[in-house]
């Protein structure tokens, strides 16, 4: 379909331009079709406790093809041991893909220094973004920032793509990533930008630096309390969550404080797109509160994990928006995962109680949990 539309016209469309009065162009800001809020689901979705830990704080989870839970253990949250781990039959984390790739004595280029995001594709390929930066406020280790491709069937690393040093700025932090259409899209949460890596050629481009859609404009609040950095100032986290549609066409993302934007990946994969076109490309998709995760479900429904109230919302393909559950157990619902059979796995990460977001003091209340919601059986909204 896109091949049939001239590139220049596609750019005008994506940039929010409308043809009018014959040949004149009127610049129009992109805007989302209004969503229709529905009353909260009643009764709310049921949370099933599927895993817990009294030693490790998890901020992201995926379900491997064999059914095991793979969790990410951010260094900055005070974790020791592996940065990426699979939970064994007893619920204990075991290094993934193996101990060598989690060995702190190994060179930074050939180990997982500080995993920041992960994406499991339908064919069993696992993509991991390694920030290479145990402390988001510090400097990455030389050779540490990279993209890692793994085969979950053989449980081995297939290839790595180091991020070029000139892709990062002083203060950068590679925080989130999705892979689609032969490219990796990496969000810089420190100095807001989108880093695009063409995987076959390893051509890397830093785009959209300081674009408003990637930039935090308000505090992160959890139960009415503002998250603060170790210096006691308001914590600022730029683009930190994203997911991509099943066909790879649409990238959904947000600075941690919200809101969620939608961007056509045509704009990111085309090297001839101009900075102005990229600046005007994102569409405000929904004015969400601070989110710990964005997840695209099997039917295209978006699930938003609201850290401010411990809630999960769904934005359905017909743009009906509904809260499906609020529960005190969902303290900072973080990076979740939706299975093909309609199960949503959500870690309650308590990240606002970790030192970087709690004025320098770690106040996690153990244990932390992973919950499961059967989204496949949720009834349709009632108005």
Plain-language structure description:
The chain is mostly beta strands and 383 residues long. The protein has two domains: 1-30, no CATH class; 31-377, TolB, C-terminal domain (Neuraminidase, 6 Propeller). It has helices at 7-14, 266-269, 275-280, and strands at 17-20, 24-27, 36-37, 48-53, 60-63, 69-72, 84-87, 93-95, 115-120, 125-130, 146-151, 156-162, 174-180, 183-188, 193-198, 203-207, 221-222, 225-226, 239-244, 250-255, 260-264, 283-286, 291-296, 302-306, 311-315, 320-326, 337-338, 343-348, 368-374. The strands form eight sheets. A five-stranded mixed beta sheet has the order 3-26-25-24-23, with no helix packed on it. A hairpin with a 4-residue loop joins β24 (302-306) and β25. The chain is globular. 45% of the residues are buried. Mean pLDDT is 91; it is low at 1-29.
Helix share bin: under 10%
Number of alpha- plus pi-helical segments: 3
| N→C terminal distance | 36 Å
Q: What is the total domain count?
A: 2
Secondary structure category:
mainly beta
Approximately what portion of the residues adopt beta-strand conformation?
A: 35-45%
CATH fold-level name of the largest domain: Neuraminidase
CATH superfamily of the largest domain: TolB, C-terminal domain
Shape: globular
Strand arrangement within the widest β-sheet reads 3-26-25-24-23
CATH class annotation of the largest domain: Mainly Beta
Find the count of extended strands (DSSP E, 2+ residues).
Answer: 29
CA radius of gyration? 20 Å
- The CATH architecture of the largest domain: 6 Propeller
The major β-sheet equals: 5 strands, mixed
**Unreliable residue runs:** 1-29
Give the integer mean of the pLDDT values.
Answer: 91
Pfam families: MRJP
Protein name: Gluconolactonase
Keywords: Secreted, Signal
Signal peptide: 1-34
């Amino acid at each position: 379909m896109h091949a049939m539309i001239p590139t220049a016209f596609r750019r005008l469309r994506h940039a929010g331009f409308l043809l009018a009065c014959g040949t004149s162009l009127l610049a129009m800001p992109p805007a989302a079709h209004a969503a229709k809020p529905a009353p909260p689901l009643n009764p709310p979705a049921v949370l099933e406790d599927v895993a817990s830990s009294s030693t490790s704080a998890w901020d992201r989870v995926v379900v491997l093809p064999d059914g095991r839970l793979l969790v990410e253990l951010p260094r900055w949250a005070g974790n020791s041991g592996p940065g990426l781990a699979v939970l064994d039959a007893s619920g204990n984390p075991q290094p993934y893909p193996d101990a060598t790739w989690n060995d702190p004595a190994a060179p930074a280029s050939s180990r997982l220094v500080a995993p920041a995001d992960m994406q499991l594709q339908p064919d069993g390929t696992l993509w991991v973004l390694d920030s290479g930066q145990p402390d988001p406020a510090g400097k990455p280790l030389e050779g540490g920032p990279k993209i890692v491709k793994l085969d979950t069937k053989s449980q081995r690393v297939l290839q790595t793509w180091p991020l070029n040093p000139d892709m990062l700025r002083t203060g950068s932090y590679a925080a989130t990533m999705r892979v689609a259409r032969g490219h990796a899209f990496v969000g810089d949460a420190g100095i807001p930008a989108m880093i695009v890596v063409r995987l076959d050629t390893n051509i890397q481009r830093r785009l959209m630096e300081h674009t408003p859609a990637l930039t935090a404009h308000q505090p992160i609040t959890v139960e009415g309390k503002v998250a603060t950095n170790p210096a006691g100032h308001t914590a600022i986290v730029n683009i930190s969550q994203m997911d991509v549609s099943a066909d790879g066409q649409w990238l959904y993302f947000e600075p941690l404080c919200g809101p969620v934007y939608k961007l056509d990946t045509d704009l990111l994969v085309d090297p001839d797109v101009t900075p102005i076109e990229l600046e005007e490309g994102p569409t405000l998709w929904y004015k969400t509160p601070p989110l710990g995760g964005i997840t695209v479900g099997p039917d295209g429904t978006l699930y938003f994990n609201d850290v401010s109230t411990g809630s999960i919302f769904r934005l359905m393909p017909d743009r009906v928006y509904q809260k499906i559950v609020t529960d005190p157990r969902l303290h900072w619902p973080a990076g979740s995962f939706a299975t093909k059979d309609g199960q949503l796995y959500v870690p309650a990460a308590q990240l606002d109680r970790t030192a970087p977001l709690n004025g320098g003091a770690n106040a996690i209340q153990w244990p932390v949990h992973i919950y499961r919601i059967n989204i496949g059986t949720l009834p349709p909204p009632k108005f």
